[in-house]
């Protein structure tokens, strides 16, 4: 016997959740873990986009930027943390 399940998403609620202070705190913690794995010269910033919160992890110095460019430091730190990058 086949039955179809219909799921209707509450987009307004999903947007509120994606921009909530709890989501921002979670992203901050995850970003700090990746930055710590990359080294001392990396920073973290959480900001709000149209529909969601976004975390940026970035080199704080020219030296770190060059290191990241040559060795993919942030990508390796992200992989070691078990997180994934979305394009």
How do the SSEs run, as a string of H and E?
HHEEHH
The tally of domains stands at 1
Given as residue ranges, the uncertain stretches (5+ residues, pLDDT < 50) are none
Largest sheet: 2 strands, antiparallel
* Number of strand segments: 2
- How many H/I helical runs? 4
Proportion of residues in extended strands: 15-25%
Radius of gyration equals: 17 Å
Average pLDDT reading: 92
What overall form do the CA principal axes indicate? elongated
Helix and strand composition category:
alpha+beta
Strand order of the largest sheet: 1-2
How much helicity do the residues have? 40-55%
State the distance separating the first and last CA atoms.
40 Å
